[in-house]
Amino acid sequence: MTPGGPVRRTSHFADLTPLRESPAFARLWAGQAISGIGSQMTIVAVGLDIYRLTSSTLAVSGVALFALLPMIVAGLYGGMLADAFDRRKVALIAAILAWASTATLAALAWFGADSVLALYALATVNAVAATVIQTTRSAIYPRILPRELLPAAAALNGITVGVMVTAGPALAGVLVATVGFGWTYSIDVVLFVSAFVGIVSLPKILPEGEIHRPGLESLREGFAFLKRAPNIRASFLVDIAAMTFGQPRVLFPALGVLILGGGPITVGILTAATAVGSTLASVFSGRLGHVRMQGKAIARAVQLYGLFVAAFGAVILVAALSGTPVTQELVDANWPAIVLASLALVGSGAADEVSAIFRSTMLQTAVPDNMRGRLQGVFTVVVTGGPRVGDLYVGALSVVAALWFPPLLGGIVIVVVVGLILRLVHSFRAYDAADPKP
């Protein structure tokens, strides 16, 4: 193995070495996994709570809209904080804020004092705190793990996210239906204690190198560095292309009614398929540590993602042309098309996770320590805003064209755009994990 380069393994299963080599990472990872399930429970419970109060899906969607701008600001400012102060302390303060917002949700539910405005405000505080935690945590990993183990750590985090987004919402639905909102929020309050254990046990982690106090000058320095970092910039552009043109999720409700049938059950299956693909890619990520040409790997994984998105569009096109009558009843659903569409989404989720592992590794290894927080903050803005732009693209195009057209066209656009980036940015194409350069 080249010093600092990829790890040579024979197993296809996820590499657990980071958990063995770094007790600090193991505690942080376990805390994230446990508390993350509770956080996903609360996200779903808030939506159900708002719907209970308003009977309006528009009001439910307002949670994301209400929190979007604060989350973007939190990503940028949280990155500056992580580059200026003890990262352990920044993460701990943000965790206390997140825990307090959830505890307040529980108290309001128990006393029957919840309101739509209060739910919006507390969900926003929770989302802002979670954004700062995530930004800071990503800047912490390279300080508690050897460089060659960062891809394996990213894969382990992918498994955590997969478990969170599948188990959390399912538990929320069961708990709200059986014991109510008060208990659901309260369980999250208890589960969140595990996050404190992971953060409190960290050593003091001060940024290395020149430190800039949070403010406009610090933000300008971060963007100036990004301007001088073609490989990081290319990884962002590749991800923006994928999120803008490859997010068919807003089509799912219409597909469940008009083309595939099955109604809400179909929507649930299609939604879960992407998460299943991401989790499978993380579980079988053991040999990704062999890959040195990570820039090229990111591009090829995203192009494969585009092909799977286009395949999803093609399945919908064939289903639409078949003229098979469908209803929201399961017995009348077009199950062959649902299965094929789900497999395409599983593939897209797996390809996206492979790309995410390498993008995360590149960001953590090629960026200097005193810039990691700010660059991670910019990345947070990309991953927060990108899917919303993607939803707008799909929604607008589906109005003027058929439902199958946005994913079919978008998948092709992704393949072409990423191919152009790979061709034009030579350093990204030649990026070597053994000699990381931004």
Quickly count the helices: 17
As for the number of domains, it is 2
Principal-axes shape call: globular
CATH 4th-level superfamily of the largest domain: MFS general substrate transporter like domains
Give me the secondary-structure category. mainly alpha
Radius of gyration: 22 Å
Order of SSEs = HHHHHHHHHHHHHHHHH
Strand-residue proportion? under 5%
Distance between the termini: 22 Å
Q: Would you identify the CATH architecture of the largest domain?
A: Up-down Bundle
According to CATH, what is the topology of the largest domain? Growth Hormone, Chain: A
Q: Kindly state the percentage of residues in helix.
A: over 70%
Mean pLDDT: 87
Q: Low-confidence segments, ≥5 residues, pLDDT <50? A: 1-7
Question: What do these coordinates show?
Answer:
The model is unreliable at 1-7 (pLDDT under 50). The longest helix is centred in the N-terminal third of the chain and has 32 residues, at 23-54. This protein has helices spanning 17-21, 23-54, 57-82, 87-110, 116-144, 150-178, 181-191, 193-200, 216-227, 230-245, 252-258, 264-283, 294-322, 335-366, 369-400, 405-424, 426-429. The protein is mainly alpha-helical. Helices cover 77% and strands 0% of the residues.
